[in-house]
Amino acid sequence: MDIGFWLIQTLNALQLSMLLFLLSVGLTVIFGLMHFVNLAHGALYAFGAYVAATVSASLGYWPALVLAPIAVAAIGFVLYATLIRSMRKSGPMAQVLVTFGLIFALLDLTRILWGDLALGMQLPQLLSGRVTLGGLGYPVYRLFIIALGAAVFVTLALVLGRTQIGAMIRAGVDNDEMAACLGINVERLFFAVFCVGCALAGLAGVVAAPILSVTPDMGLQILIPTLIVIVIGGLGSLKGAITGSLIYGFVTTFGAVFLPGLASILIYALLALVLVVRPTGLFPARG
Amino acid sequence: MTVFTKTAVATLVAGMATTAAAEEIKVGIALPYSGVYASLGNDIEAGFRLGIETFGAETQDTFSIVTEDTEAKPPVGLAKVRKLVLQDEADVIVGIVSSGVLGAIRDFVDGAEVPLIVANAGNDEATGEDCSAYITRLSFSNSQVNRPMGQYLYDQGVRKVFTLAPDYAAGQQQIGAFTAAFEAAGGEIVGQEFTPFQQTQDFGPYLTNARASGADAVYVFYAGGEAISFVKQYDSFGLKADLPLYGSGFLTSPLYVNAEGPAAEGVITSGFYVPTIDNPENASFVAAFQAANDRLPSEYAVAGYDAAHALVQASAGGANDRAALADALRNVSFAGPRGETSIDPATNNIVQPIYVYESVAAADGTGMTQKVVAQLDREQDPANGCTLAN
């Protein structure tokens, strides 16, 4: 166990964090802005992975990276128009039930469209190699995921913190009625944010597809980690999403290194601790 | 007695004789058709139907089939099997993918005295301490598939192994059987980790641990989606060259090896069936399965096919009610696609050869195929607490 080992484990942790960040940021911002719990977010991620696997089989990886988020955003558009807009005011319990049902509807839809067998997705030549770090090989693709996650984080931080749209979104999160009184079309803003959140779930799906298997239940498997990230980080904030993701990634990875027998319960223990000490999470949107 | 009545009686007797000889045997199929194991359920049923079609002529009895979806959930599976037995009055139950479902229905089928042909679920107890005269397994046991690999790996010059498996019963049993055999042969396990079952998306940390452990090789059990993720990630870290990957055959099952693609090349695993096994029974099975389903059969399909073969053989021997079928199924023996296949009446588990195979790219560029590296002896499980022989 030398420097190379620790370096690579750190990169492993970062890579897992970034994948979870892409998923949780969409979910958390939708919640922060709309007070809407979209449990079907994981199913959208699975949908993105399936679209990506299909597109990349004929067109290659790069078109898939662009088309899958767009396709998932389009599904988000349909969901918003048919279900979510009318569910906005119906309270969290009804929303949770409806989106929980959506998980299974979408899961069966992917099974009908793509079958039960797992799909594979090959990497482009550019990203399929390895670089040597500290004397050990590390896959280029994992570095790509880290870079992509970081890029999305920086972009979102700039948009939310420095632009007028960002100011409008923050105003909507803080107090949507007041924001509406000031002439912001909150409804349209919600809609746009919802679609962007869905696109990010689709992006996570494309990015995950080549290293994971594309199976109908992949959305269910990722849902729990994503919810843990959001509960630890605090609902509704970008800072919470990135912090929660990093905590999840590092605790899971180094848990597997130091305490392999306890790896699976460490994160739940931490979750319980956070809920006891800071029930709203580390960085909630409104304290 | 007039000629007329004589003829009538003769016809009646003849009629009774034929109905007595040719019964309709009602088969209740209990398999998952929804959820994560749906593809396994479909493959097993396709194999079973092909088996009835292929061998059905060997018996005078006819077979009617009722299917039920267990969803691979123990309570659902139990309810569906109860329905098949009590309402449909099935003479025999076939199927069961999940060991959890098998555990849930074990006492019911044993108490109801209905024969059950297990076509997948591999937990050791089912033909060990929990064995039943009514439960015959035509698939495999977790130990059976892995035990022979202990000696095989040692014979290949491997001395230090790092093992990985998901943390649940099948993972523990599959790796446990390998570990015991490998250590008995003289090998050393330098590291053994169990990953959280169905919660591990990223194997990176474990692979990095394996590389740092100083092992000669890695031996794993993963199945389904986890197997695909694992094989791809193992390859992406570039470990295959220095640290050869071995495992239980489910790691590179023909059912999903194409989703793993080139990442699976060179992985050596042990299983009870691959479509490239070279014998005439397998050649005709593969051809017929491909013609009917437009894909190659998997180890799941062959278990369904052999379950049908065993059932036909039992009925051809004169058994057509529950008790007689259960008895006859314990003594079936035939040459099938996996080679010489029989049931060990001491445990009711299958006795079958184990194949070591390497996943290689198909010569015609259609994806991946399997090259049989070695055919090991027929593997018979020890009684493990089963008292059927006494």
Give a quick precis of the structure.
The complex is a heterodimer of chains A (287) and B (390). Chain A has 11 helices and 2 strands.
What tags apply to this protein structure?
heterodimer, A: 287 residues, mainly alpha, two-stranded antiparallel sheet, globular, B: 390 residues, alpha/beta, Rossmann fold, 2 domains, 9-stranded mixed sheet, 5-stranded parallel sheet, 12 helices, 23% strand
Task: Describe the protein in words.
The complex is a heterodimer of chains A (287) and B (390). Chain A is mostly helical. Chain A has one domain. Chain A has helices at 3-34, 41-59, 61-87, 91-114, 140-162, 164-174, 176-181, 186-208, 218-233, 238-258, 263-277; strands at 130-133, 136-139. Chain A has a two-stranded antiparallel ribbon. In chain A, a hairpin with a 2-residue loop joins strand 1 and strand 2. Chain A is globular, with a radius of gyration of 19 Å. By secondary structure, chain B is of the alpha/beta class. Chain B has 2 domains: 11-140 and 278-352, Response regulator (Rossmann fold, 3-Layer(aba) Sandwich); 143-271, 3-Layer(aba) Sandwich (Rossmann fold). Helix content of chain B is 42%, strand content 23%. In chain B, the strands form 2 sheets. In chain B, strands 6, 7, 8, 9, 10, 11, 12, 13 and 14 form a 9-stranded mixed β-sheet that branches. A 5-stranded parallel β-sheet of chain B has the order 2-1-3-4-5, with helices on both faces. The longest helix of chain B is centred in the N-terminal third of the chain and has 19 residues, at 3-21. Chain B starts with a helix and ends in an 11-residue tail after the last strand. Mean pLDDT of chain B is 90; it is low at 11-20. The interface between A and B is large, with 49 and 40 residues.
